[in-house]
Write a structure and sequence with these properties.
The chain has 279 residues and is mainly alpha-helical. It has eight helices and no strands. It has helices at 31-38, 60-89, 94-121, 127-152, 154-177, 185-206, 213-241, 245-278. It is globular and about 55 Å long. The two termini are 19 Å apart.
């Protein structure tokens, strides 16, 4: 999935995967998607779990506040790093870009390791360890997002961020307030995610277009659905872990990570939609 800088293609070589790949002809490990496939997220908390909400030391409001606090911190780290590096690398001399390459590849490697660790061990990790890994992952994501931001340009990147924030906020609120049970969407969303990943791999192998208008719209719709779905799980997660203070605290990081991945992937597909519209 190579986002090579190609001036004849508006900066995009259409061999993109489902995480942001660099302009440097290296693969970024499907980082955004592996988190969904392996971490805690896309199976709902048991509907039959007893609610311990009234006896929990942490209130539902505090639980939600922590989740969105970690989410905001992670996104803040990622986009501050990404936009600062974009500013530095845009129209930078070759020496500066060459100096960035080891940082970029190092970020990719660490990010892939974090995905594996979070995918297999997130429920077993201590609270502090989960928080540290989330922070490291946010830093690495800012680094690996940078080439995509440089290719898109500052104006498009800012517009995509604003559009992502509006869509994410709207459907996150919908997930919180709707009376409709969204758990049935889980299998459908996972099937859609698998189809996109498989298409990405095929596109990479055969040089097909993986950033077309239709694919971008499907990706946006998919992660809008994931946003509402994951947000609704906040309440069931609280009820499920409410009798275990430590598990409840760690759950705030796990849910924040899921919502973080929703936001990042939604942002990437909006950028791709802008690129597809330019062609």
């Amino acid at each position: 999935m190579n986002n090579r800088y190609d001036p004849n293609n508006n900066g995009y070589n259409q061999q993109n995967g489902y995480s942001q790949y660099s302009g440097y002809d290296q693969q970024n490990g499907y980082n955004q998607y592996n988190g969904y496939g392996q971490q805690t997220g896309y199976s709902s908390y048991p509907q039959t779990a007893q609610s311990y909400g009234e006896s929990a030391k942490m209130s539902m409001a505090e639980y939600s506040k922590r989740i969105y606090g970690w989410l905001g911190a992670g996104l803040g780290i990622t986009f501050i790093i990404g936009f600062v590096l974009m500013k530095i690398l845009t129209n930078a001399p070759d020496e500066t870009i060459e100096g960035f390459l080891p940082i970029f590849f190092g970020g990719m490697i660490v990010e892939l390791v974090m995905v594996i660790v979070l995918g297999f061990f997130i429920r077993k990790l201590p609270y502090v360890a989960s928080l540290v890994i989330f922070g490291i992952y946010s830093v690495c994501n800012g680094i690996t997002l940078t080439p995509l931001l440089v290719v898109a340009g500052g104006a498009n990147a800012v517009f995509a961020f604003a559009a992502t924030a509006v869509l994410f906020g709207a459907f996150s609120i919908y997930g919180l307030v709707t009376k409709r049970d969204l758990t049935k969407l889980g299998p459908i969303l996972m099937i859609g995610l698998i189809v996109l990943i498989v298409y990405s791999i095929i596109a990479m192998i055969f040089g097909m277009d993986s950033s077309s208008l239709i694919i971008s719209l499907i990706g946006i719709a998919l992660f809008i659905g994931f946003t509402a779905y994951d947000t609704q799980k906040i309440k069931s997660g609280y009820n499920y872990y409410a009798n275990d203070e430590q598990a409840l605290k760690k759950s705030t990081i796990n849910v924040a990570l899921e919502l973080y991945l929703d936001f990042i992937n939604l942002f990437i597909y909006i950028l791709r939609l802008l690129a597809a519209n330019r062609r």
